[in-house]
Design brief:
binds NADP nicotinamide-adenine-dinucleotide phosphate; about 15% strand; 9 helices; alpha/beta
Length: about 260
């Protein structure tokens, strides 16, 4: 880098810090997405949120956080919502934290919710990102993108593997537009909505802790923190990566785990 390039980089970096940051969180009413919304809001972002059910009472809309309650697999509703969202300003961050929880065929539902809807949203919004800042898209995947958890259906595994490849594809095709695209792959974690379940099942919680190298279960906040890191200038040269956030659980060979148990 020449001196001129270094100084223009520094100016760009400083401008990034001071201009209005608009972040959209898909699936931001519960779990990880909700934690991402809280972190973005605490950093002063303008936050737009899509969820299927109304947000929890504690998360009332404010000047900087606004909710769109809808099923995003309904294309007409989705496009209307996205049109309203981009009127709030050009986007800097787009985070996907949803998962399919419907009653339809799990294969069709998983692919429509996790893959097709994600693709449609990215393609509708890719021209709506800021032109002069570091922009980021994060897809929430899972360690079952490369491992098998037989309590989850095939469609979940295939959709998560597809999301990782989608992140790599868009990292290449959207890079010149200044958009970085990465995925985050958690293992099982505790979220506010599942705290009671783990409190009343301490044996399961202890077992997960025992087989995790870090010796405890992770939290939705810890997954959200990695997503927010990927949306920060600290990650400005990171694109096309999948970051596993699992306390090291997926590093171990199954026979070793079986001996531990
Ligand atoms: N939980 C885990 O232990 C775990 C482990 C590995 C990976 N993951 C992945 O991490 C991500 C977050 O998981 P989570 O457990 O935090 O999720 P969650 O609590 O189930 O929340 C999912 C969010 O997606 C929204 N959503 C789902 N379908 C929608 C639709 N058709 N239209 C609009 N909104 C929709 C939900 O809205 P409503 O709630 O308002 O309906 C909610 O805000 C997911 O991608 C999941 O696959 C989770």
């Amino acid at each position: 880098m020449s001196v001129k390039e270094v100084s223009s980089y520094a100016i760009h970096y400083n401008e990034w810090e001071y201009h209005m940051i608009h972040s959209l969180v898909i699936g931001g009413t519960r779990g990880v997405g909700r934690e991402v919304v809280k972190l973005f809001a605490s950093q002063g972002h303008t936050v737009s949120v899509i969820g299927k059910r109304p947000s929890l009472a504690a998360d009332a809309a404010s000047d900087n956080v606004r909710y769109w309650t809808m099923d995003f697999t309904n294309e007409t509703e989705l496009l209307a919502a996205l049109t309203g969202i981009v009127k709030r300003g050009k986007l800097c961050n787009l985070v996907f934290a949803h998962r399919y929880k419907g009653n339809e065929d799990p294969w069709d539902g998983e692919l429509a919710t996790s893959l097709t809807a994600t693709k449609k949203i990215i393609e509708r919004l890719s021209a709506e990102f800021c032109k002069d800042s570091d922009n980021s898209i994060v897809l929430t995947s899972s360690i079952v993108s490369h491992l098998i958890a037989d309590e989850q259906p095939l469609g979940y595994h295939v959709a998560k593997a597809g999301l990782n490849q989608m992140a790599r594809f868009y990292a290449v095709t959207l890079g010149k537009q200044g958009i970085r695209v990465n995925s985050v792959s958690p293992s099982v974690f505790i979220k506010e909505e599942s705290q009671e379940y783990y409190r009343s099942n301490p044996d399961l919680c202890q077992l997960f802790s025992k087989i995790t190298p870090l010796g405890r279960m992770g939290t939705a906040r810890e997954i959200a923190s990695v997503i927010v890191f990927l949306c920060s200038p600290a990650a400005s040269y990171v694109t096309g990566q999948d970051i596993v956030v699992d306390g090291g659980i997926s590093l171990q060979a199954q026979p070793a785990l079986a001996r531990k148990i």
